[in-house]
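User: Can you predict the 3D structure for this chain?
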Amino acid sequence: MFKIPKEIINKIAEHSKKDFPVEACGYLIGIDNTVTDIIYMTNMDKSNEHFTFDPAEQFKALKYARKKGAGLIAVYHSHPNSPARMSKEDVRLANDTSIKYLIYSVADNEINCFAVDEKKNVSKIEIEEI
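Assistant: Here is the predicted structure, written as structure tokens:
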């Protein structure tokens, strides 16, 4: 179970719609499996099929999370025109097994959470809105 405040889910949806048709992306910070804050990131690729974080922004995000006594517990991104599922590209690029991956589908207005293990096996994780 991955716990996310409704207001943060709404912020992910708003960010995704604002950046449409480019994939929106960012981090969720928190403790264990409970999200406490969102960090908007820039999609350096400006693509509707993939994203890349700005390394300087990543460093700032990590410092911000530590300052809050939390960690980077999830990466989120949007799928402008496809379902909220892990694409082959998403799985290929999911190299951190310690975090969750959230995908928001702008087309379907749906969000899903996934874990990816070291063998690239994908598991869907239930989201609990808090």
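The chain has one domain: 2-25+39-121. The helical segments are 6-19, 55-67, 88-93.
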